[in-house]
Design a protein that fits this description.
mainly alpha; 2 domains; two-stranded antiparallel ribbon; 8 helices; extended
């Protein structure tokens, strides 16, 4: 082999080694450190499975729920059918837990007081995170998906529509 062939082979090996290292960090080390950090703070959850996270268990629980659950016509409780994994994990791990969609952690907060604190926060510690950009394109840059000054401007515009007098139901 000539010098040029060795150079190309070395460059390809370096690129492959870099990709392998990044995959190792993203798929193994990062989930391990996040899980360890959250557990030290008292937040547990189902264990991370390499590459797929908890997707297999979510799929299994949804299939079991679909086979076992039939909704009545007047029943609007869809959670056991749509998100049976949340019900199961709340029972096992408490009202705040972490689960994995692939290598991405998701924090479930079902504690009303914590949700109230996050929603009323004005310090910017809890920014809105748009995971699916197709949804943001569908909904636009409205009140739900904005932060900061733009959020305050949108809120000021819609606030009069939610005045208590306008929301009261008039009975005749």
């Amino acid at each position: 082999m000539g010098v040029q062939a060795w150079t190309v082979a070395a460059a390809a090996a370096a690129v492959l080694a870099s990709w392998a290292f990044n995959a190792l960090v993203h798929l193994v080390w990062r989930p391990y450190t996040i899980t360890r950090s959250l557990r030290s703070q008292g937040i547990a959850g189902p264990g991370y499975t390499f590459f797929i996270g908890n997707l297999a268990e979510i799929k299994r629980l949804r299939a079991e729920a679909a086979a076992a659950t039939a909704l009545d016509v007047g029943d609007h409780d869809l959670v056991p059918l749509v998100q049976p994994h949340h019900r199961k994990w709340i029972e096992l791990y408490g009202r705040t837990f972490v689960y994995w969609i692939g290598a991405t952690p998701s924090l479930c907060v079902a504690d009303v007081n914590v949700v109230r604190q996050v929603l009323s926060d004005r310090s910017g510690l809890y920014p809105k995170n748009i995971v699916n950009h197709h949804i943001s394109r569908l909904l636009g840059k409205g009140l739900i998906l904005t932060d900061g000054e733009e959020y305050m401007r949108h809120r000021k515009v819609v606030h009069p529509a939610f005045n208590i007098d306008k929301l009261k139901v008039r009975r005749r």
